[in-house]
Structure formats: C-alpha cells, structure tokens
Amino acid sequence: MPIDAPLVCSLIGAGGHAGVVADALWQNNPLTQLTVHDDNSALIGRTFLGLSPITSPVNPNDLHESCHIAIGSNRIRKIWSERLLDSNHKLLTVKHPKAAISPMAVIDDGCFIAALSVVSVNARLGKSVIVNHCAVVDHDCQIGDYAHIAPHATLGGGVHIGQNTLVGAGAVVLPQCHVGRDVVIGAGAVVIGNVPDGVVAKGVPARWDLS
Ligand SMILES: CC(C)(COP(=O)(O)OP(=O)(O)OC[C@H]1O[C@@H](n2cnc3c(N)ncnc32)[C@H](O)[C@@H]1OP(=O)(O)O)[C@@H](O)C(=O)NCCC(=O)NCCS
Fold first, then answer.
1. Which residues form ligand 1's pocket by a CB distance below 6 Å?
2. Comparison of pLDDT for 132 and 62, the residue scoring more
C-alpha cells in the first residue's frame, strides 16, 4: 500500500546509532520528517547525515509528541526515556522492515529492532530495548527495560535478560539462562548458566569476578 502521510518524530541522539534508526524510519516511510536533538554541544552547527540541523541542548519543549531515544548507552537511554515519559511524550518503537518479528512477540514502547534481527514467538521486550543487526531473540525470551542485544548476539529460547544489561556483539546465551540486571556480557562470550546482577561476564564459557 503506498504511503502518503508523513511520520513526524523527534530523535534524541545524533550519533552513529541515531543514523541507523533514521535509516530504518526512512525505509519504513520515505516521507518521515525528523527533528534531531543531542546534548553534545560539539554538534551545534553540524547537520545530521548532511540532512537535518542538530538542536543542542535537548529541550523537551522543542520535541514532537512522538520521540525515539536513539542512544546506544543503556544508562543514558534510560534517563531520557524517564524524562520524556514524565513530560507526556510518546516513545515510538522503530522496527526495520527487514527485521523478522513474530506477531506474537510483545514489544513495549521506545524499542529499536534493527535489520536482519529476529524476535521470535512469545518474546517480550521491555521499554527502549535495542535488538541490533542480526541479533536473535528466540522464542519465550524476556528482555528487561533499557537492555541492548548487540549485533549478532544470539539468545536461545526462554532466556531472561535483566534491565540495563548489554549482551555484547556475537555473544551467545544458552536456552533458559537468566542474566541479571546491569550486567555486561562481553563480545563473543558464551553464557552457559545464570549470571548475577551487576557483573561483567566474558569468555567461553563466560566467567565473572564477584569482587
Ligand atoms: C568485556 C568488556 C566489557 C571488557 O571491557 P574492559 O573492562 O574495558 O576490558 P579491557 O579492554 O580493559 O580488557 C580487560 C581484559 O579482558 C580481556 N577482554 C576484553 N574483552 C574481552 C572479551 N569480549 N572476551 C574475552 N576477554 C576479553 C582483555 O583481553 C583483557 O585481558 P587481560 O587482563 O588478560 O589483558 C568489553 O571488551 C566488551 O566485550 N564489551 C562489549 C562491547 C560490545 O559488544 N558492544 C556492542 C556495541 S553495538
């Protein structure tokens, strides 16, 4: 069906991840109109992808009602999500048209689901979760708010990932494992059991230091 109505949205963040999100928005709807906002004052006077001016600092009063927090850092994405929800903005979930997403997955507001990723049946994504390029979130996984599943990471069926956790690029989490909140799983790690809150787990099999 042809698209004849523009989507109007404000992006918070003007870095590399924001470019990936903008690309997905334009691929869904070439008429998408974006305003782009970033607190990095070094970006004042620059353009976003050579197309849009960047507004800095971010002022919630300047934003459209519909926003997407396009910031890779889980901590900063969380701060902005809470701030914008407090000021009655709507956090738009952005799904690349080439992501494979089950209609039986449950996806909260503000998520980004990148090209060639898979979000399978009965998976549940919390607020502002990133499922990055080629990542696999298999059936019945539960992903906490503000988590990031990095490119080519693979979560087996029934995996739980806690809030704010980063699963690094190419990491594998075996089926049914529970990973805590505020965890970093190193790139390429293989997680073979449960991981407690707040640790950095890396290697094959993944190990962490509790001190
Ligand atoms: C695991 C990780 C968090 C460690 O970061 P760090 O604390 O800054 O670690 P350092 O680079 O100082 O390295 C510390 C040690 O861990 C090792 N190491 C680092 N990353 C590793 C990894 N992914 N797997 C195994 N070992 C790793 C280093 O070789 C070093 O070993 P040494 O003490 O024997 O010399 C980080 O390397 C990583 O993998 N982050 C994930 C990044 C990612 O995938 N981002 C997605 C963006 S889209």
1. 132, 150-151, 168-169, 184, 186-189, 200, 202-203
2. 132
pLDDT digits (tens, 9 = 90+) for 124-183: 999 999 999 999 999 999 999 999 999 999 999 999 999 999 999 999 999 999 999 999
Known active-site residue 152 = no
Tell me the β-bridge partners of 37: 12, 55
Which atom of ligand 1 is nearest to 184's Cα?
3
| Smallest CA separation from ligand 1 atom 36, residue | 186
- Print the domain residue range for 60: 8-91
Q: Do residues 201 and 195 make contact, with C-beta atoms less than 8 angstroms apart?
A: yes
Burial 62-97 (b: 16+ CB within 10 A, else e): ebbeebbbbbbbbeebbebbeebbeeebebbbbbbe
Kindly report the CATH number assigned to the domain that includes residue 114. Answer: 2.160.10.10
- Are 85 and 104 found together in one domain? no
Question: Please, which residues have CB within 8 angstroms of residue 49's CB and are 6 or more apart in sequence?
Answer: 19, 22
Q: What angle do CA 188, 15, 100 make, to 5 degrees?
A: 55
Single out the residue in 40, 69, 91 at which a domain terminates.
Answer: 91
Catalytic residue among 17, 37, 89, 139: 139
CA 16 to chain centre: 13
